[in-house]
Design goal:
alpha/beta
Length: about 300
């Protein structure tokens, strides 16, 4: 598929009426800096794909690191879902945001933002990652074709690796589409909720980020003998760090350098990363090309 798929993304984004429901991001008490000014408090949004309080706690080293490197106070924010995060970025209520690839693509259609860094799983490696299609060991699913007639759990509707990528795998490799009644689907919110739904038998199968699946196995949260991998996806550019384009250029340079030169183990531990590599908007065209496979339910964003 070619670049015109962007129009499909634009149509999806234009139709979605987002509700601004934030955790830690006020409804108007925080003054917003004028264009071209460095904010007194840098509002940094993290992914709402796992427990919010745990995400904030795990990223306290990031907060401290950015305050030291950038010379401003930092407020870490976790929104209730991807739609809230997109809306907050669109309205200028966030300065930096760590999006999933699909939520970035949707946000970029409405907000004047730019990606600048993405996670590297190994030092010097490309900033890419994979999704994984999972199944309950008792479901009888060993290949994507076996998903026919089964129930599949997805994460947030705007999630890349817990919705878009695994749904694309079913459509393109097994010719299975939920709109044709080939399987049933349910959205359970976050990656960890997908894995638990599969483990508990509330869904036969599901899709999520491979790194998150591997971490949940290491932590003992899920049993790999129960939640088995069916197929991994091809690599896609990893979750991008983004910033408002209207920030001062010299400040944006400092932000880029803070991430691209980051070698603080305490900060990187929360991301299970070796570092961050540079990315551009063009790197996410592959996600734009897959977007027409989704029929995003407006109710999920209202």
């Amino acid at each position: 598929m070619t670049r015109p798929a962007r129009s499909t993304v634009a149509a999806l984004a234009a139709l979605i009426s987002f509700a601004l429901v934030l955790t830690g991001c006020g409804s108007g008490s925080t003054s917003e800096p004028a264009a071209g000014e460095v904010p007194e408090t840098l509002r940094v949004a993290l992914l709402p794909d796992e427990n919010a309080s745990q995400v904030i706690q795990d990223n306290e080293p990031l907060k401290e690191y950015l305050e030291d490197e950038l010379g401003v106070e930092v407020e870490l924010i976790v929104t209730t879902d991807y739609s809230s995060m997109i809306e907050a970025m669109t309205r200028g209520r966030l300065d930096l945001a760590y999006f999933g690839p699909l939520s970035y693509v949707l946000a970029q259609e409405q907000a004047d933002i730019e990606p600048f860094a993405a996670l590297q799983e190994e030092e010097g490696a490309a900033p890419t990652y994979q999704g994984v299609f999972l199944a309950n060991a008792d479901s009888g699913i060993t290949t994507l074709d076996d998903v026919a007639g089964k129930t599949v759990a997805w994460g947030d509707p705007a999630s890349t690796s817990s919705h878009l990528i695994p749904k694309a795998m079913l459509a393109e490799e097994a010719d299975l589409r939920v709109d044709d009644g080939d399987y049933e689907e349910q959205h359970v919110g976050a990656h960890d909720a997908v894995a638990l739904a599969v483990q508990n038998g509330n869904a036969d199968a599901g899709g999520m980020s491979l790194p998150i699946y591997e971490r949940m196995v290491r932590d003992g949260t899920i049993d790999p003998e129960v939640v088995v991998t069916v197929q991994e996806s091809e690599p896609y550019y990893n979750y991008p760090w983004t910033m408002q384009t209207n920030l001062p250029e010299d400040f944006k340079d400092k932000v880029r350098a803070a991430f691209l030169e980051l070698d603080d183990d305490a900060v990187l531990e929360a991301f299970e990363a070796a570092g961050f590599g540079p990315v551009t908007d063009k790197d996410y065209d592959a996600v734009r090309d897959l977007a027409p496979l989704l029929d995003i339910d407006l109710a999920d964003y209202q």
